[in-house]
Design goal:
The protein is an alpha/beta fold. It has a single domain, classed as Metalloproteases ("zincins"), catalytic domain (Collagenase (Catalytic Domain)). Helix content is 36%, strand content 18%. Strands 1-2-3-5-4 form a 5-stranded mixed sheet, with helices on both faces. Helix 1 packs parallel to helix 5, helix 1 packs across helix 6 and helix 4 crosses helix 5. The chain is globular, with a radius of gyration of 16 Å. The termini are far apart. 36% of the residues are buried.
Length: 200
């Protein structure tokens, strides 16, 4: 899906620099903070690195509610009701290294030219923290929808899943879905602690 979600407005947006990427995190008013911004930025950066995202670049991540996700789901996907995560990629899949989605893509388009030293924006991800909590506690979490685990694990999975969609991955094709799920499992297994010598 292309496009962009509504602007963050005066919500709590914070830019976190993690490696070559700037992660612009927005937490909507009233939405609980399950993990630190730094931990979430590290998760997003690992997923961007695994997907071969161009760098330096920026990524927007909005932590919201079922209400906003239901509105976005209806507007952009034509589906009623809330969903857990929506991604709004801004670059074509061929921008990223070979993976199943890229293999299906049309001929590469000309690269988008940016002003010197401009940081391209990869896209935006909107996550319903409310849905992440409900799915985790009800045993509807994980990749299979039948995992009962901590809401923080579900949130990390949704973030990784959203990043991979921004990077052109899709799970409509069974072969690609298997590759995507495998990459998500690998990234989830990596610790979310800060690297040694990093105070974040």
């Amino acid at each position: 899906m292309t496009g962009s979600p509504p602007p963050a407005g005066s919500d709590g947006t914070r830019a976190i620099y993690q490696g070559p990427w700037r992660i612009d995190m927005t937490v909507r008013p009233g939405v609980p903070r399950l993990l630190s911004g730094a931990a979430l930025a590290r998760t997003a950066a690992r997923a961007l690195a695994a997907a071969g995202a161009p760098s330096p670049a920026s990524l927007g991540v909005i932590f919201s509610s079922d209400t906003e996700l239901a509105s976005l789901n209806a507007t952009h996907m034509g589906e009623p009701g809330p969903t857990d995560v929506l991604s709004f990629p801004l670059l074509p899949p061929e921008t990223f290294p070979d993976h199943p989605a890229r293999a299906k893509a049309a001929a590469p388009s000309a690269p988008f030219v940016l002003p010197p030293s401009a940081r391209p924006h990869l896209g935006d991800i909107v996550i319903s923290v409310e849905r992440a909590i409900a799915q985790a506690h009800a045993g509807r979490g994980g990749q299979t929808g039948d995992v009962r685990w901590a809401a923080t694990d579900e949130l990390r999975l949704l973030l990784i899943h959203g990043v991979l969609h921004v990077a052109g991955w899709d799970h409509a094709d069974p072969v690609e879905e298997q590759a995507m799920r495998s990459l998500e499992r690998r990234l989830l297994a990596e610790p979310s602690l800060p690297p040694r010598g990093n105070g974040n």
